[in-house]
Design a protein that fits this description.
Rossmann fold, 9 strands, 23% helix
Length: 186
């Protein structure tokens, strides 16, 4: 997992450890060559970076060249969108706290979760253009891209924070990503 300076990075780490995933936290400026071999997946954490203003997030562009499933949360999600040709910008209605999200179509991340659910958000920026090949998999009243995925690239992103207890099905969402990584590595 890549630490982008998010306030809940250790919660993400803990949630993964609780479901018996061998997890390490690396700083976002770690050279890609220093990541351990045999990674089954990678999580790009949230952070204080304003992707909608700077477009930068450490070495995350290099990590996205890896041929493994990658899950971006908040700033990681926004960076993923811009990296693949979409965009993120300051939100018209920044979200802080609980929001109701609605899942759209079928999604790996939202498998075995209800269509409408509560999620915890904390963002000033948001994805406003989804990259080619990605589909929107969840939305809220004020944020049309709460989640997106591209199965061809094995990429997933969420604007909200599944690692926070206020996100109703956060552990299931992260568990779904882990299950997907396991199916891709076998």
């Amino acid at each position: 997992m890549i630490d982008n300076g998010g306030q809940w990075t250790h919660r993400e780490w803990r949630m993964l450890r609780d479901i018996d995933v061998d997890t390490q936290i690396f700083p976002n400026d770690m050279p890609i060559t220093s990541l351990r071999e045999g990674l089954d997946g990678l999580l790009l954490s949230g952070g204080a970076a304003r992707i909608g203003l700077t477009g930068e997030l450490g070495a995350c562009g290099e990590y996205l060249s890896l041929d493994i499933p990658i899950f971006g949360i908040c700033a990681g999600h926004q960076f993923m969108a811009t990296h693949y040709g979409g965009s993120a910008s300051p939100a018209e209605h920044p979200e802080f706290g609980a929001v109701e999200i609605t899942t759209v179509d079928h999604s790996i991340l939202f498998n075995n979760t209800p269509k409408v659910q509560q999620a915890f958000t904390s963002h000033n920026d948001e994805v406003d253009v989804v990259p080619d090949g990605f589909t929107i998999t969840a939305e809220s009243e004020t944020c049309p891209v709460q989640a997106m995925e591209c199965l061809e690239r094995h990429r997933f992103g969420v604007q909200f924070h599944p690692e926070v207890t206020h996100t109703e099905h956060g552990s299931r969402i992260i568990g779904n990503f882990v299950e997907y990584c396991q199916t891709q590595s076998s």
